[in-house]
Amino acid sequence: IAATLVMLLWFCASWRAIRRAVAITEEATKVFSTLPSLMIWPFVELGFQAAWLVYGVFGLAVISYPPVWGGGSTTTLLALAHVAGTLWAIQFIKACDYTTMAAAVAYWFVTTNVEKDGCCGAAKCCRGWSSGLGFPKLLDAAWTVSTRHLGSLAFGSACITICQLLRLVLYAVHAATKQTKADRNFLVRFLFKCAMCALWCLEKCVEFVSYYAYVHIAIDGTSFCVACRDTFGLIVKYPAQTAINSLVKRLLCGVLLGLSTPFLASACCFLYLDSLDDFTASHSPLYSAAAVFVIAWFVASGISNVFEAILDTVYLCAFQDMDQNSPPRYLSASMRSALGIDAASEEAGGSAEYFKKASDRHQQAGGAVPVAREDGQPPMRAISTSDGIRA
Q: How far, in Å, CA of 91 to CA of 87, rounded?
């Protein structure tokens, strides 16, 4: 009960962040009208991952074959190195795919999705369907990522891989000591569980920071370390908004799309096949339903990954626009209304100009900003001339 009350109080205190998260989600849905190819882009990642996974399994089987390597510590080290390389390659493919989608969405945000640009965020409705389904923009983003950011993505994927390897090594040690006397000791088992939980939390934290860093790389073109620094700055500056967005992603992408869709598809398949007497006479609908569940899970996880990338990119683009530009330059009319950008000016009415900074008023009027003097006297006005700036 106490935890429920705390959660309710937190939701009530974060109502503004929830409203912003709803606006970000609504804005994210506009992307598909211009970039419908994003819906099938995850299958490219899935194909590369499946091919590399097959290679990893085949390579591990060859390494584990005793007549070839002779067994012993050499085989163990080779197997560990092969597993590490396979995991690194899979994480690298994920990073490239995520950054490519983020780069395409960021380009959409600052070009197509401008204020007063139609009902669906494009100059013409369903613009993407007549412009190659958005594939040119995705291919351009993929080219940019593959020619400029592979080192940053390799470093970020290596960080995640190290965490995964630590967990695998700990699980292997735990499995090896399961039949020994040490496993019967309650303190040893408790420490193993605590270590597993800590490494799991570490991996999730590194993934959280890394995927936000990938979006920063796509938007700003920075290195991975600089992107991680910007991510920490974002979390410190907007902790409630970041937490609400993560919760929305878990509920919307993880539960609604990632889990409910496969279960619903497999249930419909089972009920339909179970109603056919000719089919049930010689076959069991359970196996078909299981196959549908696996296929639907892969498809739903790919779509969830796309929507997570869109949400993260729209979130970072919108808040960077608000932080760096006054007033924001790239927010759409619906986002400006939901985020309350123009609410203060509308409430102030004719007095809004009076409360602006002096520098902003001078810049809007076409004048120059007063320049401070070194002798401590009141600042003088810098007058713009054709030859430059003179005091």
A: 6
Q: What is the pLDDT of residues 250-273, one digit of tens each?
A: 877 777 777 888 889 889 988 888
Angle (CA) 383-386-388 rounded to 5° is: 60
Report the sign of the C-alpha dihedral through residues 203, 49, 254, 18, in that order: positive
Q: How many other β-carbons are positioned within 10 Å of the β-carbon of residue 33?
A: 22
Residue 345 — pLDDT band, cuts 50, 70, 90?
A: low
Q: Residues 138, 142, 143, 149: what is their CA dihedral angle, to the nearest 10 degrees?
A: 140
Closest listed residue to residue 310, CA positions, set 111, 95, 24, 44:
24
The predicted model gives 227-236 an average pLDDT of 90
For 380, the token pair is 């003088």
Residue 248 has pLDDT above 90, yes or no: no
* Spatial distance between the Cα atoms of 77 and 82, rounded to a whole number of angstroms: 9
Q: Are 63 and 75 in contact (CB under 8 A)?
A: yes
